[in-house]
Amino acid sequence: MATQEEIRSMMEEMGKRDKQDKVERYRRLNAFVRPGQILFVGSSLMEQFPINELLVDLGLPYTVYNRGIGGFTTTELMEVLDVCVYDLKPAHVFINIGTNDLNGPEYRLDELLARYEAILTEIRAHVPGVKLYLMAYYPMSEKVAAANPWMAEILQYRNNARVAEANEGVRCLAEKVGARFLDCNAGIMDEEGNMKAEYTIEGMHMYGNGYYQVLQALLPVLQEIAE
Predict the structure, then answer these.
(1) Residues 117-149: tens digit of each pLDDT
(2) Domain contains 119
């Protein structure tokens, strides 16, 4: 019978292979993209954004490529920027990366922001003229998460206070580098600053109805881009 440590190791190895598989799928898919379009990139909170289906439902003609990969940290994204960004030659890049960096005891905001800034610097160096949009991290629903035992370890570190602090750091980073900070959270938050329970799967990730609220906040920006 496998020990707890052996199970954890197997799960980590499976997660690593899953990420590698997604990168390779994106690499092959990139042969068919049209340059100069809109790109979404980041971790699972971006990967799970059903942006194209929602745009079709709304009858909107925007072309958006999604290169999010679940579980990604800033370090992991930096290692595959060629596949997830450069190959697509996008005109506009919307980024949501860094929430997985918040999950452990060794997290430090200054180190997160340094890695995030390095990502932005590399993107600009490889995609001249690209416009960058840094999306605010979504709040947790700490009440819903607390009802899911497997979330207990994450909740020790990734809570709304830490998310709010990180968002302020990303807002300042956007100002520093001349990017645009987008806070699309108003429609998914309750009066206590939690993600509304009806929008979240387990307190961290969102159902499609939550992403619909985020898209409503994004639409003015997408309309500006289209003009």
Answers:
(1) 999 999 999 999 999 999 999 999 988 988 888
(2) yes
Our count of domains for the chain comes to: 1
Is-contact 78 52, C-beta < 8 A?
Answer: no
Gap between the Cα atoms of 142 and 107, Å rounded: 19
Count Cβ atoms below 10 Å from residue 103 Cβ, excluding itself: 16
Question: For residue range 141-194, what is the model confidence (pLDDT) as tens digits?
Answer: 988 988 888 887 888 899 999 999 999 999 999 999 999 999 999 999 999 999
- Give the model confidence (pLDDT) of 78-100 as tens digits: 999 999 999 999 999 999 999 99
Non-local (6+) Cβ contacts of 29 within 8 A are none
Within a domain: residue 7? no
Torsion sign (Cα): 28, 29, 34, 39? negative
DSSP assignment letter at 191:
T
CATH number at residue 97: 3.40.50.1110
The answer to whether residue 211 sits within a structural domain is yes
Does 65 fall in a domain?
A: yes
